[in-house]
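re: that chain from earlier
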Amino acid sequence: MQTRRLPLTVQLIPLFVAIGLFSFLYRYLDDLARHLPGTAPQRVFEQLTGVVTAIVIVPIVVGVSRRFPWSRAGWQRAALAQLAGALAYTVLHTTLMDLSRTVLSPLFGMGAYDYGNMFWRYPMEASNDLVDYAVACAIVYFIAREERARKAELAAAELRGQLAQATLENLRLQLQPHFLFNALNAISSVMYEDVRRADAMLARLSEFLRTVLASDAQQVPLDDELDVERMYVDVMTARLERALRFEVHVDPAARDALVPFLVLQPLLENAIRHGMAGEREAIAITVDIGRDRETTVISVADDGVGLGGGIVRRGHGIANVESRLHALYDGGATFDIAGRAAGGTCVTLRFPFSEAGAA
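^ sequence. v structure.
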């Protein structure tokens, strides 16, 4: 969320208040050094009118600095504009101080105010005003530069976010046709052997696809993800009958986790397809979901044929999961696949914990 900043004119008020305070101390202490006591009220009056009139015309500093930004290519134009702005500022400032002090001094019971010969007063005040103007101008340029840098950073961050979102959406588009192709192949393999089973698989597949296509979220609550994955398992269970055993264990601490949508489906598909290679006729798959401090940990283990020589085969589904984790968590997630000592394979995902309700 972008923080709302005060207008530049308001941000410059502390500068002129500080200038007025230091000027008061300089003049009042000078009076004391000259053995002129009792001048404090007059010096306060002079500095208050000086500060207030400066704040009234400070939009000149802001306007000129914004209209003519300082750059290597246009510095001459900016210098001329600032010179004109400084002259306008000091003339207006001196004039307003003269008018305000002439009007207000009698009203405050201080008598008529003598500002001296204005022919000399204008260049005298200009010696101070030009320094104040230059300092204020430098601050405006600095603030404007910081604002431009911040806007550029926000724009870059937005573009990075849009790119990441586009990447994730592209990965989802790759995932769904891939799954559908494999699911239809599974159905066709039993269609002529058991029509009832094929019909049940089609019904469950239809329900699965309606749920998947109705959601455009990249991350979903864990319970929603598990519901979708159970639909997929039902399709595969109808195909494999008793050859597939599926269990899910969820740590209560991870129950409210937010997880990538359809992150489990490629892992389950991969476990069934590769775990039942060769003459293997049955497989048991266990999904464990836990929380390690601020990290969500998901492991998918099977008792299938294993990696076979320790070679990890990264097909379309595995590559898709790795790419989505990288895009979602910007390198803050890990993906590990290894053989199990008791046989089979275990895939472990670790990514930053995020609570579904808070998201």
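The chain has a mean pLDDT of 83.
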